[in-house]
């Protein structure tokens, strides 16, 4: 099996950032659960028709959860930018300072061959395996898609079990979302020539839908 050497300080920094991202996403889910327990969203009123605090919810906990979610979402966005920058550095390190491409099993050669596999063959295989079949049209702020790190114009290479080889229509994506409420769905996207492996958790939120983004077939 061909392995790519990705060890190094740049990778370590990215892995630490990803761990921090996972912690933030976990706390966002915890705070969102507080709102769901009280049957309110981020913008539902906390006072009754007479202006008194509602007695059917824990107003203090709801206010705290809303404030915390906003702070965490801001932290998450900033962290995703750092992760993108870090992944670009890792990608640069993989290419190597001489532009000969990543080190394969700890060795590379100037003619582009390693262990009998040409760099051209490796690139062709990657293109064949990772073809775009859908794109992200828009992403609503604070939505499950936004929290997962999806961005407008992301090119989707894989969504759950769907990829370009078995993709037929958008019904497949809709079915995965509908049957994965509260569960982690792996999404592989390409953005600015860099591939990202994201995890989205479809769930009800303040607006219609379970993702808060529009995904359309690649034209």
Descriptive report:
This protein is an alpha+beta fold and 219 residues long. It folds into two domains: 1-95, no CATH class; 130-219, PDZ domain (Pdz3 Domain). Helices cover 41% and strands 16% of the residues. The strands form two sheets. Strands 3, 4, 5, 6, 7 and 8 form a six-stranded antiparallel beta sheet that branches. The chain has a two-stranded antiparallel ribbon with strand order 1-2. Strand 4 and strand 5 (162-163) form a beta hairpin. Helix 1 (9-37) packs antiparallel against helix 2 (59-95). 20% of the residues are buried. The model is unreliable at 1-6 and 97-128 (pLDDT under 50). Belongs to the proteasome subunit p27 family. Residues 93-118 are annotated as: Disordered.
Number of helices: 5
Give the uncertain stretches in residue-range form: 1-6, 97-128
Strand portion, in percent? 15-25%
Shape: globular
Q: What oligomeric state do the depicted chains represent?
A: single chain
For the CA atoms, what is the radius of gyration? 21 Å
Largest sheet: 6 strands, antiparallel
Could you spell the SSE succession in H and E letters?
HHEEHEHEEHEEE
- Rounded mean pLDDT is 78
The N- and C-terminal alpha carbons lie at a distance of 35 Å
Family: Belongs to the proteasome subunit p27 family.
Keywords: Chaperone
Protein name: 26S proteasome non-ATPase regulatory subunit 9
GO biological process, one term: proteasome regulatory particle assembly
What would a concise description of this structure say?
With 219 residues, the chain is α+β, with helices and mostly antiparallel strands.
């Amino acid at each position: 099996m061909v392995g790519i050497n990705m060890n190094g300080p740049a990778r370590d920094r990215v892995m630490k950032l990803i761990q921090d991202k996972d912690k933030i996403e976990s706390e966002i889910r915890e705070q969102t659960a507080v709102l769901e327990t009280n049957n309110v969203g981020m913008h539902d009123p906390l006072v009754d028709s007479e202006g008194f605090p509602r007695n059917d919810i824990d107003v203090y906990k709801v206010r705290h959860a809303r404030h915390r979610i906003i702070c965490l979402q801001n932290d998450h966005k900033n962290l995703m930018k750092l992760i993108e920058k870090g992944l670009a550095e890792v990608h640069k390190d993989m290419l190597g300072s001489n532009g000969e491409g990543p080190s394969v099993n700890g060795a590379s050669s100037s003619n582009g061959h390693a262990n009998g596999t040409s760099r051209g063959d490796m690139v062709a295989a990657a293109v064949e395996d990772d073809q775009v079949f859908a794109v992200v049209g828009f992403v609503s702020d604070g939505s499950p898609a936004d929290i997962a790190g999806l961005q407008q114009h992301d090119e989707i290479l894989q969504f759950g079990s769907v990829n370009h080889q078995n993709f037929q229509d958008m019904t497949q994506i809709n079915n995965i979302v509908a049957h994965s409420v509260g569960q982690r769905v792996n999404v592989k996207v390409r953005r600015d020539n860099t591939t990202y492996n994201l995890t989205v958790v479809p769930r009800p939120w303040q607006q219609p839908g379970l993702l808060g983004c529009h995904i359309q077939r690649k034209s």
